[in-house]
Give the backbone structure.
Amino acid sequence: MTGLVLRRAFTRLLNVPVACGLLALMSGCASTSSGTHAAPAAGSGEVTREARLLQMTDRRQLDTVLVDELLRDVNVARRARTALAIGQVKGKARYGKLRHLLVDADTAIAANAAFALGLGRDTASIVALARAVAGAPDPVAIAAAWSLGDIGDPARSVLTLALGEGAAQPLVVSTAAQRSAAVRVALVTAASKLRVVPAATLLPWLNDSDPQVVRAVAYVFARTRVPGGVRALVALRNSSDEETRQHVARMLAKSAAGDSLASRALDALNILVTDTSPRVRVNAVRSLATYGVSVRETVTRALRDSDGNVRVVAAEVILPMLGTDADAWRATWAIDSTLPVRITLLTGARRSGVSALAAAENEWKVSGDWRQRLAVLTAWRADTSRTSRMADVLWAVNDVDSRVKEAGVAALREVVTDEPAMADSARRIWRTRLQEADALVRTAAIRSLATTANADVLPAILDTYTRYLADRDDDARLAAIAYVNSAWIRDSARFTPALRTRLASLAVPRDSAERAAARTATPLAAWKTATVAPVVKPLSDYETLVRRYVLNGGKRATAILHTEKGDITLELFGEEAPLTVDNFVELARRGYYRNTFFHRVVPNFVSQDGDPRGTGSGGPGYAIRDELTRQIHTRGCLAMALSGPDTGGSQYYLCHSPQPHLDGHYTVFGRMLQGFEVLDRIVQTDRILSIEIR
């Protein structure tokens, strides 16, 4: 397709008069604005209006009267927040207004409107978003491109045409070519979300004159490992841009290079594995390992790298290269004595059916560090060739630490599977653990008993359920409800009238997850349709948050993470994410994060903390709403960890490098100001001493 035909096709798609060209919006288009405005004094009326908006987003209930009122507000910042709130609550009834706001004179309002339409994945807005990509100010065009990417394949033709699909000279004649580098980056990144990545369309953009665009294309190829990008990325192995080299190192795995380009990819990886950046080396070691035992010597050298996370990755990927060679396992064990590396090796040896590290297991089993004892049990459970005995697990079941005990109680199920004669003994142990103070130990016991759920044990389960209704965590209660479901399916004929009466007398829980867990064909069926008044926070609570974070004169709180590797200073985005920031601040001030561990560190991805148990299974016993905004996942960003929408609590993560695929899906509520070198030194199991709020 010639450049002229391409331009006409894109113009027809947008329904924009040809005379406007590719860079102009039709009449009434947005004018450029800084998006920053002086806010009026925060009087009581100002605070109340903001509080009502925040309350609406927290409840996830669109208030059309309120929204319409605030979209007419004289305060442009409030109008911008309102536009975003429509998307956050997925207020489809006002998506039409958002489309009109795409041409608002204020870029903050228009950009939030564009982003909000993407949160709703509104396919009816594709043409309006395409117009914004073609001619709106940069912030609006960037948000519109993100939204088109999140809408996905229905927006494919818009994205690929904008990037010059079919054009002989896409870097000259396409819509993207006429836009700034930042908009081109947004379009390229959006294309990575399409079900089939348009590799041929993206490939020419590796020749863009701006390194940001080249970096973005390299990111897309590396993330998706589209084979068509290997040859081009090999040529970038010596790029002066460190992030681009990260993507090159990630791209050159054997699955992408294949046999035909394997030697060229290996040559590049052998250069990148000695790169000055540890983040490049992390990616290079991962990709190198995909070439098998031929690179074992190089990976072994990486076990001696000066960077702890490079060594962790080397330990992870070398496991299949060691095979069943006991001497090789012991030699590898001796190279690095740090905890995360040795935990990886201990589990890997067991999984491989190798007993070479048995002496270390015996030492760790009686260690004073619960993490080492838990690692022994985890390693044992990874060994599919084991011959189980009760003694292999009983020590953990009786451990003084509830985290080890929880794992031991769960591991008894595997003993019973391997040695059915031990079933009665295991069930007796599980029943005794129903009285444990730790909710997760009880949860493991209930779930274990549920494998043979019956009416006889149900009274003991209900005793546990009612005794611990005040548990902060609902895990044990959910497990008990699941037990009722299973017992009814397996053994309903033996549910006595007294047992049925007892079940019917249970109070309907306020927790929606507990009500949802009750199946319709059980004595708890009434829970599914019960009307329970929701716990509603008063408007005054939201007014407090508004005064503290939204209308506070632009002040931003800071958080200092005091870790055993040094301090990390973070700026908190209170105006953008007041619910999330306030939750984090309150937890920090009450010492919730004191002496916790980075329980999850994925090198060159994230470091995650916020579970006082140190295992990743703990939390504060409640969940907060997501506050999805245009804040992005840059290196050093602070964001909430989730297990699904609106499941944030106390766990958060810090990004080691930009992660565009997470944008708009997790709440980014801060950014790192100082301590990047500390972040790079942190490995899994490192301790946070405290978090100080200023």
Q: What stands out?
A: The first strand starts at residue 558 and ends at 563. DSSP finds 37 helices and nine strands in the chain. Residues 402-418 form the longest helix (17 residues).
